[in-house]
Task: inverse folding
């Protein structure tokens, strides 16, 4: 489901987006534009760090990019030709200023700033070891663990320290970091979290998605490879170098980028996200047809899949639900009475379209199911004769530990209910999900390769591609681990 305000905690959330640019006189302004294009990846806080030739400049603010980083006075304070930026969403608790990225520290090698997308699955254990050895933490983010590992590395050169830190962490991550002269990017060994390389003239750019390149008129060059570390020191081909510090592995990018995290106009893995989502809808129609009159998306997340479903089924596509784009988090007072109105504040049923119709309702996912239940009820109250729910992802049965904010398994509807029980809970006339193999076919594969899965898809399959050290340790003794409230 799309990443706007949520009253029920019924969304899966991508925690953040990252951006970096090297060697441009308007680095901060371009970083702000890039972050604006990545705003869907995190709307609770944003930050930009630059180096102006004499000092590092850091601005970190709660709220949206446009609330703070479009002001000329702010951009003037962020002078310099190297910049990194971050938009974030916190996974638990409230967002607090000391958790906003980028993080900055003075190391033995000089000033160092870092921004991080993802989650370290051994971050809790590393944090405890660091605290036991005397480290002082300022935040509750696992990004700061990485900062300490770089600081404590015995190597002399910064790039060697950076790689040394990478070798100690596990999980899914994409990183951008900067020093006085360098911009560094890195992607985890399986390529779970995304990172792309672009160029504006002769200046190199790193970003979570291609849309961040589009907004500033930059050229997409390629994706940063899984396990690759990119170091940028200048312009053109001579200004960039790559390191591969890990044994070669098959790439397994996060399949959720295609389902709902990436913006529809992004290109991920060489594929148009929009076209992949339409194909998911076509395959869903083939696998789970419905006797109905119209196809209606849950906006905005279900629109591409609904278009594909309508094309494949021959049913009319209709905007039976209209989304209010002007509802923000700060609009809602946290009272139960107002919370009960949450779905209607975001979505309104289009009665003229729905009344008397048998409706196929398309959405991208079901998490707890509470929002889906309310939307089905809303469509019925608008006069729909039947409501057939179709979901363009398989049932989510397992939590994520790589940078997606998911409920525990006990709170995932599909983990605790049969298909019929889920249908009854939502009070739909029928319910169906795309199959795992159908999802893979939408991505151009014959199906899922069980021996060598092409994507990270554990939320559907339980097949976690890396060790889950923190999870195992917390299950043994949750009291032994210090607080780590936020991932990046």
Result:
């Amino acid at each position: 489901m799309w990443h706007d305000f949520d009253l029920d905690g019924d969304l899966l959330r991508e925690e953040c987006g990252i951006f970096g640019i090297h060697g441009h006189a308007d680095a901060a302004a371009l970083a702000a534009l890039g972050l604006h294009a990545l705003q869907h990846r995190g709307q609770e806080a944003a930050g930009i760090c630059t180096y102006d030739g004499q000092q590092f400049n850091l601005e970190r603010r709660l709220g949206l990019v446009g609330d703070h980083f479009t002001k000329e006075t702010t951009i003037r304070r962020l002078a310099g030709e190297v910049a990194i930026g971050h938009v974030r969403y916190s996974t638990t608790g409230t967002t607090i200023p000391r958790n906003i990225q980028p993080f900055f520290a003075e190391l033995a090698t000089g000033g160092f700033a870092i921004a991080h997308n993802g989650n370290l699955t051994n971050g809790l254990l590393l944090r405890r070891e660091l605290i036991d050895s005397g480290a002082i933490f300022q935040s509750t983010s696992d990004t700061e663990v990485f900062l300490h590992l770089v600081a404590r590395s015995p190597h002399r050169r910064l790039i060697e320290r950076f790689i040394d830190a990478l070798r100690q962490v596990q999980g899914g991550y994409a990183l951008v970091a900067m020093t006085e002269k360098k911009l560094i990017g890195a992607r985890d060994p399986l390529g779970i979290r995304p990172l792309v390389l672009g160029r504006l003239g002769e200046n190199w750019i790193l970003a979570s998605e291609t849309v961040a390149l589009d907004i500033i008129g930059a050229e997409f060059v390629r994706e940063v490879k899984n396990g690759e570390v990119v170091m940028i020191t200048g312009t053109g081909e001579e200004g960039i170098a790559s390191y591969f510090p890990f044994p070669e592995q098959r790439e397994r990018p996060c399949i959720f980028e295609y389902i709902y995290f990436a913006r529809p106009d992004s290109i991920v893995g060489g594929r148009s996200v929009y076209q992949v989502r339409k194909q998911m809808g076509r395959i869903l129609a083939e696998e789970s047809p419905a006797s109905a009159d119209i196809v209606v998306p849950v906006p905005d997340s279900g629109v591409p899949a609904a278009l594909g479903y309508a094309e494949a089924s021959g049913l009319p596509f209709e905007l039976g639900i209209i989304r209010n784009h002007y509802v923000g988090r700060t609009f809602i007072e946290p009272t139960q009475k107002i919370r009960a109105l949450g779905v209607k504040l975001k979505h309104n049923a289009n009665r003229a379209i729905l009344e008397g119709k048998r409706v196929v309702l398309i959405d991208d996912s079901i998490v707890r199911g509470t929002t889906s239940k309310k939307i089905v009820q809303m469509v019925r109250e608008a006069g729909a004769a039947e409501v057939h729910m179709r979901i363009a992802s398989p049932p989510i049965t397992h939590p994520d530990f790589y940078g997606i904010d998911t409920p525990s398994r006990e709170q995932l509807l599909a983990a605790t209910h049969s298909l019929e029980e889920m249908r009854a809970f939502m009070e739909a006339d029928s319910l169906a999900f795309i199959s795992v193999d159908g999802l893979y076919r939408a991505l151009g594969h014959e199906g899922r390769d069980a021996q060598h899965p092409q994507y990270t898809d554990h939320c559907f399959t339980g097949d976690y591609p890396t060790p889950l050290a923190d999870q195992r340790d917390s299950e043994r003794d949750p009291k032994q681990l210090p607080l780590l409230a936020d991932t990046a």
